[in-house]
Amino acid sequence: MQKKFSIYHLLFLALAFSSCIKKEVTPLADEGKTFIKILEGPENKVFLSPFTGIKSVPLYSVRRDANSNASLQQTAPITLTRIDAMVTRYNADNGTDYELLPDSLYTLGTGIAKSGNTYTFDMVAGDFAKEFAINLNGSKWDLSKKYALGFALTSVGSNAAKASGKDSVIALISVKNKYDGVYSVTGTMLDITNALFVGTYPLEWELQTTGTSSCVVVDNVQLGIPGHVFNSAGDPTTPNTYYGSYGLVVNFDLATDAITSVTNYYGQPAGNTRSAALDPSGANRYTAASKTIDIKYYMIQPSAVPASPNIRVFFNEKWSYLRAR
Questions:
Q1: Which of 141, 175, 209 is the last residue of a domain?
Q2: Which residue, of 19, 45, 167, 204, is most buried by count of CB atoms within 10 Å of its CB?
Q3: Is the omega angle on the peptide bond into residue 269 within 30 degrees of 0, that is, cis?
Q4: Roughly how many angstroms between the first and final C-alpha of the chain, as a whole number?
Q5: How far apart are CA 231 and CA 139, in angstroms?
Q6: The domain that contains 90 carries what CATH number?
Q7: What is the pLDDT of residues 116-131, one digit of tens each?
Q8: C-alpha to C-alpha distance for 135 and 122, rounded to whole angstroms
């Protein structure tokens, strides 16, 4: 069963601490140098609201820590190299699915020149920092995808040095609609096939943007995938399983914030005949003032409940916004 329940996988770590405190010092050879660094490195998450035109988007900034006013008045020629393998490595390390941002989706910001995977610009006299910005084309953006670009400082000129640990960055770019975020979920569930199948509220779910007015609901605490956990032994305090091939995609009306429909992320229906549907007796809407969602919905499964309308599980929930994801 695909889940990451901490209750089944407890790991106790013994941490050894040194009795002395390590003092940060500057090596003598580095004293007096001017350093160039990527301020947001090694990772910068860039979140955008849905848009359809051309939008200037700063991915990160290159900063000059000058050792003197004279150094600040010098021109620092900056060279960066795009390293596509950084995206592959980030996905492998973090279990994510970022794609390399295609060249067709953007042009470079003012003052940045490109040759192959090499990018150059100058930090001129008086520049403490310079943004590396791109012009994104929102009309070509696939809202169901997340994109990334990785860069490393290659050269900073003869009058400066690269700052160790701040000489590379991966910029992670995704679009968020107004419903996107992390929510606390309370409510009730009723599975008519087994009275011991009970909800284990509260839960924590992420609403992740899939379109201008739609989100997929992901349990990143218990599962790491779209899904609904519960307890199969009548214990409402601890989840021990979940409904396979069942997870929500929620569609909203942007003008009214009403929920227009829910569908099953794994198929409508999935291979096990499970599908999702709204319960029309619910409020089924997002309230902007409180950032809450009141929703009632069903899990329909004809293979388990042959009689029409084939409703197996009734859910009645309130989702309360906690934070941005």
A1: 175
A2: 167
A3: yes
A4: 26
A5: 44
A6: 2.60.40.1740
A7: 999 999 999 888 899 9
A8: 19
